[in-house]
Design goal:
- The protein has helices at about 15-25, 70-75, 105-115, 120-140, 150-155, 165-170, 175-180, 185-195, 215-220, 230-245, 285-295, 300-310, 335-340, 355-365, 385, 420-435, 450-455, 470-475, 480-485, 505-520; strands at about 5-10, 30-35, 80-85, 90-95, 95-100, 225, 245-250, 255-260, 265-270, 275, 280, 320-325, 350-355, 380, 400-405, 440-445, 490-495.
- Helix 1 (about 15-25) links the parallel strand 1 (about 5-10) and strand 2 (about 30-35).
- By secondary structure, it is of the alpha/beta class.
- It is about 35% helix and about 15% strand.
- The model has no long low-confidence stretch (mean pLDDT about 90).
- The chain starts with 6 loop residues before the first strand and ends in a 7-residue tail after the last helix.
- It is globular.
- It has 20 helices and 17 strands.
């Protein structure tokens, strides 16, 4: 039996590391237990098959930069630096038409629309007037525990600016909100891809309307990518945590959360070793921890256990191709005169959204039921080495490419083992980026939902996220998702499936640490 700690965090993903770093910064003796052999979760995931470091999560970082995490934990001192592009997103329809160029600067986006979609300029300006205050409110609410009192105080402090829009949009579907704002599918569908499609939901699903804020968010917070790749985020958090006196133990799968007398007293590892602490923070699969790991839950926790036991584990819905590509950075083929008029030097620095239109997304979501991948799925194409030359690899400085495919079922009809689907997706590169692009691919690998389950421990390949925004948090069916505290004294939750989790954010880890420290009567300190 090891010496006791003040706190144990289970799971060394970004939120787990953030939470642990704040606890260590406040003076707690904290350790992080990670089942895999490296930290970072999907933000790490080095894959040897490509011969170069690769990461399962290559998403653009926006939300992390909207939190105080970097400054409060001093992550720049631990090597985390962001590269920012003035062109974060380009979108196009499978059927052609005018591409949409979304610049970081709202004024430049309006100027670009005057070139590509002149009839949408006034609509976009009106959209900004409605969406910006609501997006600002969302970002502010994300950095605190969403209790009714906290939300009310924030709304009053802003004199209710953005509150009516947020309330109205949160109740509707993304397609309904966006179609009420824009006539062109070229502006509606991309937000449906980066919003509900990326959450595994149909654009007409109720409660997804908050995704309509996505464009406004990109104008408020600069989209960036960590210099050196997405793995730099967990690397910097690990460095900050250990510098503050915390520790991380890998290859340490937890089997039991020990509870006695209505409160936690530590954990037991799969090898039987017990590690003691009065605080246990679950930063991984909350359902597994509550249903399978928690021994002898007290009577007050029976309702929580029953709710989680009855809940269904969603299926994974995303696949990712990573590739090493020789020659110039692959990018969509654009008319040179159009790029000159827009002032775009290198469109490869943007993340490119390829969509089948809103009606196509609705049909594609239906295809998931029988286990099929649509003929024209939604794609997110990125070439991180176009913005960060340090990611180019080999003697020829080959480029790195990432292609996310939405949606792909966990249970593919006919099975994944003999499927030619991944090869078909790779073939999209010739259509999108020009004939011969596939021939320039030196090496590639694919992660399907079963691969995400096997390599990252994600049950049925599902990447968890918190459903909805601040208003959904107020009426959460599982209050521990939004309050971080469980009925078992000393047991807390954080991670992407708790508010406001999704992607690389860190707000959940920061909020959860604040709840722990508040309960212990310990003040959070600045770096």
């Amino acid at each position: 039996m090891t010496a006791p700690f003040d706190a144990i965090v289970i799971g060394a993903g970004n939120n787990g590391l953030v939470c642990a770093a704040y606890l260590a910064q406040a003076g707690l003796r904290v350790t992080v237990l990670e089942a895999r052999d490296e930290v970072g979760g999907c933000g790490a995931g080095a894959v040897d098959a490509l011969g170069v470091p690769s990461h399962a999560c290559t998403c653009d970082d926006l939300t992390l930069r909207a939190t105080p995490v970097m400054e409060e934990l001093g992550l720049a001192d631990h090597g985390l630096r962001y590269l920012t592009t003035d062109l974060p997103t380009v979108a196009t329809n499978w059927d052609g038409g005018s591409p949409l160029f979304l610049f970081a600067d709202a004024g430049r986006t309006l100027d670009g629309l005057a070139v590509t979609h002149p009839s949408s300029v006034d609509a976009y300006a009106r959209y900004l007037r409605l969406a910006r205050p609501a997006a600002e409110l969302v970002l502010e609410l994300a950095n605190q525990v969403p209790t009714p009192g906290a939300v009310a105080r924030r709304v009053l402090a802003r004199r209710a600016r953005g509150a009516a829009t947020l309330l109205s949009w949160s109740r509707r579907s993304a397609a309904s909100v966006l179609r009420s704002l824009f006539r062109s599918d070229d502006l509606v569908a991309p937000a449906c891809v980066t919003g509900p499609a990326s959450w595994g939901r149909s654009p007409v699903a109720a409660g997804t309307g908050v995704a309509a804020l996505t464009y406004a968010m990109r104008h408020l917070v600069p989209v960036g990518r960590p210099e050196g790749g997405s793995g730099m985020v967990p690397a910097a958090l690990y460095s900050a945590l250990t510098t503050m006196g915390g520790s991380v133990r890998t290859n340490a799968p937890v089997a039991t959360v020990l509870a006695e007398g209505g409160r936690t007293r530590g954990v037991a590892l799969a090898n039987g070793e017990e590690i003691l602490a009065p605080v246990v923070v679950v930063a991984c699969d909350a359902r597994r921890a509550i249903v399978s790991w928690l021994n002898d839950p007290p009577p007050i926790a029976q309702d929580m256990v029953a709710r989680w036991q009855a809940s269904r584990v969603p299926d994974g819905f995303k696949s990712t191709i990573d590739a090493v590509v020789a020659g110039p950075a692959p990018t969509l083929q654009f008319d040179d005169s159009l790029l000159r008029r827009l002032g775009v030097r290198d469109p490869a620095v943007a993340t490119t959204v390829v969509h089948p239109g809103v009606d196509g997304l609705i049909r594609n979501h239906w295809e998931l039921g029988p286990g099929r991948v649509a003929w024209h799925p939604a794609l997110l194409l990125g070439v991180p080495s176009a913005l960060d030359p340090g990611l180019r690899c080999g003697p020829d400085l080959d480029h790195r490419l990432s292609l996310d495919v939405l949606w792909t079922p966990y249970d593919l009809a006919g099975g994944w083992a003999n499927s030619r689907e991944p090869e078909r997706w790779l073939g999209f590169l010739d259509r999108l980026c020009g004939e011969g692009t596939v021939e320039r691919v030196r090496r590639w690998r694919v992660l399907t939902p079963p691969d995400y389950e096997r390599e990252f421990g994600l049950v049925r390949g599902y990447t968890p996220s918190f459903p909805g925004g601040p208003l959904a948090a107020l009426r959460a069916r599982d209050p521990e998702r939004a309050r971080y505290r469980t009925p078992v004294a000393g047991l807390y939750l954080t991670g992407a499936e708790t508010f406001p989790g999704a992607g690389i954010w860190g707000a959940s880890g920061r909020n959860a640490a604040g709840v722990v420290l508040s309960t212990l009567g310990t003040r959070r300190t600045a770096a």
